[in-house]
Amino acid sequence: MKWIKVFLFVLLLAGCGQSETMKGDAGGKSNSSEQERSCPSGEVDGQTIDEVPQEELEKYDQADATAAVQMERYETFQSHLKQEGISMDEMDALGNVFFADTSVVVLLKKELPSEKREPVEQIVEQMRSTYNKDAVIMDYVAISVKEKEQRITEVSNTLREHETINEKLSSVSTCGGKSMDIQVTTLEEMTEEEKEYLTSEFDFPVYAEVMASETAGYVTGVREGGMLVGFGWFSNAPGEVKVGDYVKVTHGPVAESFPSQGAAYKTEIQDPRQPEGADKTDRQVVKKALSSFEKGRLNVTEVTYDEEKDEWQVTISTGIMEEDEEETVTVPD
To answer: Collapsing DSSP states into helix, strand and coil, what is residue 118?
Structure first.
C-alpha cells in the first residue's frame, strides 16, 4: 500500500499548484505585493473529516482517518477508471484529479468529446451514490494538467532567456487549487516594459506577483560565493562580505535543511555600529566572539555594549529548535 500513500501525496500537491523554482531559498520576513493582477481563486472546499458520514467513518482506522478515507475513495475511483479502460496518465490528458480534504476533485476539459467525457461523469455519479454527494467534486476547465505543465515549461524557458526578468525571477507555478492559470513570482517589482512583455509574449494569461523574504543578521561564516546568516547559507554573496558584518538579505524561498540553503538576490552590508563611549565596533566584537568557538553553524542573536563596565556581551546560538543552546561571550572593549 506504500505506493498508494505516495501517490496520494502527489495528488495533494497537484491541487496546491506545481512550480519551477528559479532561485534558491531561506527563512525570514516575507513581503508580497500585487504587480498587475492577482491569480483567480482556485480554492476548492472539500469534505472535511468531520463532515464524512459516521457510518463510513466507522470503517477506518481513526488514528489517521483522513488518509484512510482518501485512500479508500481513490482506490474506488481508480477501480472505476480501470473498468472503463482509462489510466491515470490518460486522466492527465482529460483534465486533473486531486484531493481537497477527503473529497476527490475531478476536473474535465470543457471541449472533450462525449465519448471521453461521459465515462468519467458516470464514474463520478457512481462514487457519489457509493459514498455521498460531497465525496467527489467535479468541475470543468479550459485545459488539462498535462497542458498546464507544458505552459509552465514554456513560460519558464521563455523568461530564462529574458535578461532582466530572469535576474529577478523566483518561480513559475500555477495559481493553485483547480486553477489552470500560470503565475510568475519575482523578487522585486517588474518594470512596465517587463509587464508588457509578460502579457504579450504568451497566448494565455500569465499573472505576476512579488514574493520576497528578508533575512537580517550577523555573518558567522563565509566561503567562496557564500555566507552563513542566521542558520542559513546564502549563495550569491558579495565578495566584500566578511565575518562580523551585519547584513540584510533579500531572497526567494529557502530549502528547509539545517542549515537552510538559499540564494541571495540582494545583500545590504550595514555600516558597523559603534555605541557612544566604545572603542570597538560591533563588527570587530562579533568576529572576536566567534573566534572562541569551533567552526560550525552559529547564529548571533544579541550584541550589547555596557558603557559602565566597558565591555560587550555577544549571545551566540549553537543549535536550532529543541536542541538550541545559547552562550554569552564577554568581550572587553
So the answer is: helix
- The residue behind cell 457510518 is 55
* pTM greater than the 0.70 cutoff: no
Same domain for 284 and 242: yes
Give the Å distances, CA to CA, from 70 to 55, 119, 235.
16, 22, 40
What is the grid cell recorded at 86? Answer: 482509462
Domain range enclosing 74? 54-141
24 in a structural domain = no
d(CA 292, CA 329): 9
- Residue 300 in grid coordinates: 548571533
Summarize pLDDT for 314-329 with one digit per residue, the tens.
999 886 555 668 889 9
145-186, pLDDT tens digit by residue? 999 999 999 999 999 999 999 989 988 998 888 888 999 989
Residues 171 and 114 in one domain: no
DSSP state of 104: E
pLDDT category of residue 6 using cuts at 50, 70 and 90: very low
- Residue 219 sits in the same domain as residue 326: yes
Residue 126 located in a structural domain = yes
33 Cβ contact list (under 8 Å, min separation 6): 189, 209, 210
Rounded CA Rg of the chain: 26
